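Summary for the steering committee. The consortium agreed at its last meeting that each partner would contribute one worked example illustrating the joint modelling workflow. Our contribution is presented below. We chose a case with several input lines so that the handling of multiple components could be demonstrated. No manual editing was applied between input and output; the record is shown as generated.
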Amino acid sequence: MKIKFGFVIAVACAAASVAVDGQMKNNPSLPRTADGHPDLTGVYDLAMLTPLERPNGMPAVMSDEEAAKLEKQSADQNRALDKAIDGNRAAPPKGGDGSVGPAGNVGGYNNFWLDRGSNYSIVDGQRRTSIVIDPPDGRVPAITAEARQRQASRLAQFRPTSDQSESNDPGLEPAGAYDDPERRPLGERCLLGFGSTSGPPVLPNYFYNNLHQIVQTPTHVMILTEMVHDARIVRMNAKHLPSTIRLWMGDSIGTWEGDTLVVDTTNFTDKTRYRGSTPDLHVVERFSRVDAKTIKYRFTIDDPKTWTKPWTGEYTWPATSERIYEYACHEGNYAMGNILRGARLREKQSTDKQEK
Amino acid sequence: MRKPLVFAAGLALTALPAAHLAAHHAFGGEFDPNKPLLLKGKMIKLEWVNPHAWLHIEIPKADGAQACQFTPNAKCEEWMVEGGTPNTLLRRGITKESLQAGTELVIDGYQARDHSLNRANGRNITYPDGRKLFLGSSGTGAPTDGADPTEPPKGRGRGGE
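What follows is the complete predicted structure of the assembly.
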């Protein structure tokens, strides 16, 4: 798309509505860059309570009162978790404490380390109950028979995907899941954040470190993800790389459609496989600045080898005055060694038992 | 033993884990459910590293491998305790000065599956009176809850604000 830079600047300076390739820019009050486009630069905190998929029985939009009630429940839960406990307590029970998920039977760590988000996302003035807006039921469409077969394969089970929220309970993971570091989740390996934080699509992980930073120039837009410190570079007005060149976060190219930045991403690898998709995954993201503090983020996902139809989600990216901190991860990742050593010891114990 | 917290059904949609403790790594693979621990000691240092911070404490022990730093003329054993990401603490204004070396701590958790390592998960890290670390005090970077008028505004640009 050709952009008439001189024209844009001249008219933007006059603070009037301007036309770019025939599309109206109807909000002259938005902060803009020198080339006349909305300025998306900033740090955004994506932590929120709105889940990807709408829970059964919930309406698409909540009333302010319903949202306030659930937000209060979440805040109350946090307060309860932060309360003092018995300083003279005993050690936890032998045999495990019954925790599930990654904290499988040993627990994790205190709530004060967590930062899950406190509010439901407000899009176009509506408090949303899901990120997914199409299909209208707020649920990710059914996967194809081919995808079902692919995901059930032994190979797929060994290789965690980019959206994998966390590690599973070792008692529930498939045999071989601890055989080598490459079979561990990408987050555990310090490669990408868990829960598709880097994307695309960029999603909150409902846990912590949900900050993102956008840096914008006329030729490139960078989207930095705090965890695990991934910078996705969007090349503006460029063509996609040859299909032989594949990138972990895909190849992102951008154009402006009026005041909306449209980012088209293809050329994925088979290393992330968002929700079990293939390297043919195609993600189109739309960044629209709503006001000086808010971006509306919308994405449409298509991979005919995985889903029966394309699907779309949206939520807001609220600006924050908080800073992004470096998430240097490999050097202090003592846990990976502990986890693999633990697996070898369990194997040895199991072998010793059999020999007896 | 799980804390019997009862939540309204609506809360399920917040995707919060029902358990009162959370982990990002495979803690069940890392730590041994058959080696519960209660550690009482003094903090030597907090390693502010990702993906998980590690708190080092010393516990006086007759056959300890090293001289205690905070208990005169005694031998100590050093333990490392795994916590969460330090970024969250930084964001709340907690600094290296917020938790001084020598602070007495009580930690319950489970030992690493490799018993040759003095490592455990920080299932609960508290002061001796049971207060959770970094909480319940003002002016030290405790999270803002509006209770302390001297606290700076939250500044979280989340939807709804």
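The radius of gyration of chain A is 23 Å. Chain A has a mean pLDDT of 89.
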